[in-house]
């Protein structure tokens, strides 16, 4: 037994944190056979060892990084588990957190995700020039945004979603973007292609994440923001015998939940009562909202706006489009009357087609069609491409382009080669 205690004493002698006085007491008690006292002293030494190790690992007595909560978890553990740090303005900045990891090789602001989050919003700086905004369109979109931002001051039920729908090519998205630029709104824009994924639940989570990101733009940057989904009926609509997928159901459920609880949005982290977000208005565009799940588009959740531009709206938009070419307003009126019942993008396609002959001439100047690829890429890289001179726009040239587009439309609708290739196709 004494030999065993000597072995234990030798082990204790190798421990740098053990006091020599304790070792002497253990040896003296081992000679008297007081095993109980030796075990007590040994346990006390183990407690001292644990405290010393704990003191060695602790950074500072005043550090909040190692502060324990009621469950014994420190701050970093909780932060990583909840993953709700959506602050887009504060990252790993010099002088703020851990200067050791903020070097000049990364720059003073080394938050890698910061630039990515900034790109989530759209600023519309590319929209240069003076464009026409339909007054009724401006009134509807602006009223929807304002109502959602001052909802606490109103004693009415305010729908979270504005559904803008109408015929194809009528400028629904472009008019909305012009209004955003005029009002200084930085929205987050999604498309119908993002409403489907090979992973179940991913589109719904994406909508919630971008909703929360728009909320952080409002909070941190002090700018108006919203969530805009283009062509929503292409992603959620039921056409013919198409089946609804799990992602379609989750997206519909997510949008309905946002309408019912616009300030409580979870992205999968632990639920906290204090986790509140700003109310973010949502704008969706589509061609036919009747194909969408009916409870989503009910009046309490979605405010509908049917956009069908009048003759005055079309003339105003087309005149601003042709104004830089020197086309007067009366000429624009005659062009619109010549091609009635056409979408707004038809008049843009007319102007684009007038460039065809000038582009063909320009290709001949740089070496012809045979050497187009090699010459175009090489000279573009060297910066030696000849300057392209736009054609002079005339009313006659625009009318010729419009008649060409009309002939192609009639040829497509009249031929219907699908009947020739698919004999069992119903009319």
TrEMBL record:
Domain ATPase AAA-type core: 164-308
Keyword terms, alphabetized: ATP-binding, Chloroplast, Nucleotide-binding, Plastid
Record carries keyword Transit peptide: no
Domain Ribulose bisphosphate carboxylase/oxygenase activase AAA helical, chain residue ranges per copy: 311-409
Compartment(s): Plastid, Chloroplast stroma
GO molecular function list: ATP binding; ATP hydrolysis activity; ribulose-1,5-bisphosphate carboxylase/oxygenase activator activity
Gene Ontology CC terms: chloroplast stroma
Top-level taxon in the UniProt lineage: Eukaryota
Record-linked Pfam families: AAA, RuBisCO_activase_AAA_helical
Annotated SUPFAM superfamilies: P-loop containing nucleoside triphosphate hydrolases
Keyword Chloroplast: yes
Family, per entry: Belongs to the RuBisCO activase family.
Free-text function comment from the UniProt entry: Activation of RuBisCO (ribulose-1,5-bisphosphate carboxylase/oxygenase; EC 4.1.1.39) involves the ATP-dependent carboxylation of the epsilon-amino group of lysine leading to a carbamate structure.
Protein name (database record): Ribulose bisphosphate carboxylase/oxygenase activase, chloroplastic
The organism of origin for this protein: Papaver atlanticum
């Amino acid at each position: 037994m004494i030999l065993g205690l000597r072995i234990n004493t030798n082990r204790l002698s190798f421990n740098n944190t053990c006091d020599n006085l304790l070792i002497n007491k253990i040896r003296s008690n081992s000679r008297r056979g007081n095993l109980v006292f030796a075990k007590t002293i040994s346990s006390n030494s183990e407690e001292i060892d644990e405290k010393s190790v704990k003191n060695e690992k602790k950074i500072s007595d005043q550090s909040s990084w190692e502060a324990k909560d009621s469950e014994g978890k420190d701050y970093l553990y909780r932060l990583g588990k909840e993953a709700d740090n959506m602050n887009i303005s504060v990252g790993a900045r010099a002088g703020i957190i851990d200067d050791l990891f903020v070097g000049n090789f990364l720059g003073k602001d080394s938050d890698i995700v910061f630039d990515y989050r900034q790109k989530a919003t759209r600023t519309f700086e590319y929209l240069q020039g003076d464009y026409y905004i339909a007054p009724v369109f401006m009134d509807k979109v602006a009223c929807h945004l304002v109502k959602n931002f001052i909802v606490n001051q109103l004693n009415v039920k305010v729908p979270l979603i504005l559904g803008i729908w109408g015929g194809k090519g009528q400028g629904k998205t472009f008019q909305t973007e012009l209004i955003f630029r005029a009002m200084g709104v930085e929205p987050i824009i999604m498309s119908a292609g993002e409403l489907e994924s090979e992973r179940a639940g991913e589109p719904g989570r994406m909508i919630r994440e971008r909703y929360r990101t728009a909320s952080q733009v409002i909070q941190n940057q002090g700018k108006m923001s919203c969530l805009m989904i283009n062509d929503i009926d292409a992603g959620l609509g039921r056409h013919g015998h198409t089946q609804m997928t799990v992602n379609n159901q989750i997206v519909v459920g997510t949008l309905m939940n946002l309408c019912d609880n616009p300030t409580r949005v979870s992205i999968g982290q632990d639920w906290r009562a204090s986790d509140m977000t700003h109310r973010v208005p949502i704008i969706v565009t589509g061609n036919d909202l009747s194909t969408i799940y009916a409870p989503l588009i009910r009046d309490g959740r979605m405010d509908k706006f049917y956009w069908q531009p009048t003759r005055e709206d079309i003339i105003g938009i087309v005149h601003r489009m042709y104004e830089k070419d020197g086309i007067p307003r009366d000429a624009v009126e005659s062009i619109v009357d010549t091609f009635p019942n056409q979408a707004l993008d038809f008049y843009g396609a007319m102007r684009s087609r007038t460039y065809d002959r000038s582009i063909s001439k320009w290709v001949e100047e740089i070496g012809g069609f045979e050497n187009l690829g090699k010459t175009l890429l090489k000279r573009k890289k060297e910066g030696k491409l000849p300057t392209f001179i736009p054609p002079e726009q005339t009313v006659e040239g625009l009318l010729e382009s419009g008649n060409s587009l009309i002939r192609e439309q009639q040829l497509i609708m009249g031929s219907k080669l699908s009947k020739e290739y698919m004999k069992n196709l119903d009319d």
